[in-house]
Amino acid sequence: MSNGPKSFKDLMKRTTLRSEQGRQLKPIPRVQISEVELARRNQRLAEMKAFANKLRCPLCGAQLDGPVSWTDAKLTCVSNPDEYSVYYPGTGLAKQEIARVSNDYYIYELAYYLIGLNDDEVPEYNVIINQLDLTISVPQIREKNKKRLHYFTGVKVLPINKDLTADNILKKLEIYQIFS
Ligand SMILES: [Zn+2]
Asked: Distance from the CA of 65 to the center of ligand 1, in angstroms?
């Protein structure tokens, strides 16, 4: 016989001992912030909330909703959360913006990820266009099978606004396919 555990009970005992060795964790240090810093954060939080309250869904005009902290805001369209979502790391430019429009067959997802400002001070983005097949009825499977149609880096050539439609995205893709 080997030197292994003699019974299931022995095995459990050994397992317990091993995991107890791994439990020697240090307590999480508490971050101490001064009254001044706390006041500054509360001020920033009030500014972020006021900023978020003024924002509207660029596609339908509805209000945006989501978690707002003193550092950032992650918001989605109230009337249709799938339609528009945006991430603001402060009250400046959005860091990430995702819009979805559809026709009878597909959902087109247009995503802008801010990289920075170019020499003309114009924001440039990683731009991704994805296609989701509406004949796939289970949303999770549809998400898993979404197809990347286009990826490029540049300025916002297809603004997210009330005029954004599946047709507009398709027309733009045609142009890219001709010239790329
Ligand atoms: Zn909307």
From this structure: 11
